[in-house]
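Example record

The entry below shows one chain as it appears in the dataset: sequence first, then structure tokens.
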Amino acid sequence: MWDRPDPLNRLADALQAAAWLLLLLGAAHYVIHLPIFPLREVRIMQPPRHVAVDELSAVAKGLQGTFFSVDLAAARAAFERLPWVRAATVRRQWPDRLEVALEEHAPVARWGSNGLVNTRGEVFQAAFDGVLPVFSGPEGSAKEIAIQYEYFRTGLAAIGRAPVDIQVSARRAWRLRLDDGMVLELGREHVEARLARFVAAYRYTIEPLKRRIEYVDLRYANGFAVRIPGLGVETPPAKREKGTA
């Protein structure tokens, strides 16, 4: 090989090209880290509903680097660590700005006593003093409850009521507490059909009583049992369905 000029020339050209490439990369690295390309502005594209302005300012001030060298993935992760931020998108905008789009959690309910549930059925931790229904159930059941909540809310609106507390037991039995204090026991099976039956019968059974209803057991084949405070005797209208709870 050493006595063949063509291969040696090609090798020399390749080495020269590699040297120039390394030189250019080094120069580019040096230039983009120069203070002549500072990051002057971090712009939040939409006014936040829940995220505090001082929290956003603290994240923006903590970003390191110039316009070219700032780590976009690290910046995105920093914004997504804020309690109300579900997701963030960060992009450069020439010549000296970062633009940040935030997707905030939209709370639909409280999760027990120590969390919130968003419209996607995801549990998150944040401070919120507004009035929300309460969900409780086994770990991982928040999404299922959020889906059912929409059905319950829509169905009960027909009789002017709303669910304020939805519980699912470890055995997957459903119980609702309504805004007037009434508790509906729905059990594990035919939950939607049982609620629909109650709503359909409400106007000519519950409403005419003009009494506070404490508890309604809907786990019966052809009716439901009602508990009225102050009455000593309760007579179920039908036999309870076998094997239901």
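Notes for this example: The helical segments are 5-32, 53-61, 72-80, 142-157, 191-202. The two ends are 88 Å apart (CA to CA).
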